[in-house]
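2 proteins. here.
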Amino acid sequence: MAHAATLSLRALHKQYEVKGQALPVLQDINLTIAPGEFVSIVGSSGCGKSTLLRLLIGLEGDYQGEILLDGQRIAGTSLQRGIVFQEHRLFPWLTVEKNVALGLLNAQQSEADKRRAVQEHIELVGLKGFESAYPHQLSGGMSQRVAIARALVNRPEILLLDEPFGALDAMTRAHLQQELQRIWQQEGITMILVTHDVEEAVYLGDRVVVMEPRPGRIRRIVPVELAHPRDRSSPGFGQIKDQVLGEFAEHGAELAAPAWRPDAAPRPLSSWQFAI
């Protein structure tokens, strides 16, 4: 089981400079995530969710406030933090086994230990028997399983998930939500999910963080005090889901407001490219 980390965000502020003017993106974010906790973050497009993940993964260091992992300030990318995107980003010329092994490219392990870890994580995501398959031979859901295995294979302290099931059909999405919940419980690491799907957020999260834009800030944190596995049709589940949706209904115009002015420069897509 991986070591779970405590993540603390204290008075976090982030802004970009656009045409010589400061554009606030995140404002006064204060949040502590306990070891092994699963936190879901929801909010409309432009509320700074993706920027927050960029800061947590270590792609950006230009911010005010503190981002601490077990009391140490995050500085740059690290094997301590893994990430899964909406697109699986597998290399098409590599097999499942070799795609997962990329997650250990910089790990200080023997080759035997690496092979063992790769096999364990392929089995963890339910893909035993597909080690030699190529991405084009896999379904979308299976490809995301490979991406999750690759992110977990080096046993990070935190796994960040950026809309990991957003491109999948409803049935596959529901099934992988169940699988992710199983993996989270089995691995015991801290997970942070960014999603637009309120039901997904409630189904998976111990807490749901509702964000609002211009600039991005926390409006409310809704605890989800329901045992796993969760029944989506239960009254308790519906009540919590309605609480979260109520934040959007009550403040719909503000939550839906764009965080970027029409004349603002787009964020460079190249900044989201990863080697693995």
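next one coming up
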Amino acid sequence: MKMSKQFPLNALRVFEAVSRHLSFTKAGEELGLTQTAVSYQVKLLEDMLGEALFLRQPRRIHLTEAGSRLAPKVSEGFELLRAAVNEMQGVAEGTLIIHSTHTFASHWLARHLGIFQLDNPTIAVRLETSQQVIDFSKTEADVAIRVGTGEWPGLKSHFVLRNHFTPMLSPTLAETIGGVREPLDLVKLKIIDPSDPWWRIWFTAAGHPDAPLESTSRSRLGSQAVEAAAAIAGHGVAILRPDFYQDDVAMGRLIQPFPLTCEDGSHYWLAYPETRRHVGKIRAFREFLKKTLPSFDTNPTGKTG
């Protein structure tokens, strides 16, 4: 039997696009095909396999069980082909879109991305930040820096940094109560976001599980980076990852009154779709993190990620 009969590349390429967009119309726009041509290629593949790949409903389609099994393998196959071609050309080109938390972006990525771009001059970088966990099927992002356990279905993850925390504040604010000498001195001051579970974890570890956090004002600022800025301005005590603020400590803008730091089991991870692990620009970003972060992929939880 001829290879073209055994391996319908055109139909598989169309199927991959439709499974990604869950839309015949959007797949056609991406591939430069009419909706009729897209439907024909999908039907051709379904007839060859003897399986329905999509459930067709008014104004929407869904992958069947068979389609859900096939889609990630087909996507991975096309990514392998792209990676092989890039390797032959000796380049990893395009724009790498990185999605990150505000804090990691401002306190680590922004300071080190220049190294990545010097090492990879053919790759442009676009950095997007938010506190939301993105859905890779609904965004252009190639990789994400997430805080969590490193377990997300369908995603490959690599450990980046431990996420530990401790109270930090401006020395000027500390002086308003004659200095912070014991943990309960902190509740004499304004606590930035006392509803943050990190506070209770830290006070419990400090021997004060019943610290009266409920009596403090309930400011919520949305991200650690904004909370740190408020703490530097003297507006309250923030609970922060101290490694990100060593420059502020050195310059006298923040103090860490106690050496005690705690963790909640959530750390920083690099995540991206499992099917895209061989893409050149993603591989280059992995190598950059490995080069610049000794902790990268040390896998402290023992997970295979």
